[in-house]
Specification:
This protein has 172 residues and is mainly α. The protein has helices spanning 2-18, 27-51, 55-81, 89-97, 100-104, 109-134, 138-164. It starts with a helix and ends in an 8-residue tail after the last helix.
Length: 172
């Protein structure tokens, strides 16, 4: 039961990490928010590789792990140089526990994962667009600008995935 709880919490932490309004952020806030979303993507992707049933879900999840691990590493490198703190797994788990019921109401893990991917990528794109257009730190602004095309491609794929698995987030 503990494994189910942890697995469920990881699957829905994307939506937890994606909530909230995005105003202009300072470097600390951007690094914290972006790293939280990145860790959430990797952990949820790992879970989807394990718990997903559809081949397209597993393939998408593998891409999320690969792409977001690379982005997380790049962001961590920038943050380290600037002595900024990145989010960690424990912080995300605490937030995810509060959202556990969302996954239980979905028809399937694949559907829940696909819906969360759409919502998470929409929120992440907003965060990165804000940083790219209004960020004050040149390195973080460049990171956000360079990462946006891949995030937008992920969103398009997530929308296809949600549509294929009966998700309600596909059209958003």
């Amino acid at each position: 039961m503990a494994n189910y709880f942890q697995a469920s919490a990881l699957a829905i932490m994307l939506s937890v990490a994606s909530h909230g309004a995005f105003a202009a952020q300072d470097a600390d806030d951007f690094v914290e928010d972006a790293s939280a979303k990145g860790v959430a993507e990797v952990e949820a992707g790992k879970l989807a590789e394990e718990k997903g049933t559809a081949a397209d879900v597993k393939s998408f999840a593998k891409m999320m792990v690969t792409d977001h691990t690379a982005a997380n590493d790049k962001l961590a490198s920038i943050a380290s140089q600037k002595k900024l703190k990145v989010s960690d797994h424990a912080q995300l788990m605490d937030k995810a526990k509060a959202m556990i019921l969302e996954l239980r109401s979905a028809k399937s893990f694949d559907q829940a994962y696909a819906n969360n991917q759409v919502k998470a990528h929409q929120a992440t794109i907003k965060l990165f667009e804000e940083q790219a257009s209004s960020g004050e730190d040149a390195d973080l602004k460049a990171f956000a600008t360079a990462t946006l095309p891949k995030l937008k491609a992920h969103l398009a794929e997530a929308q296809k995935l949600a549509a294929a698995h009966g998700g309600d987030a596909a059209k958003n």
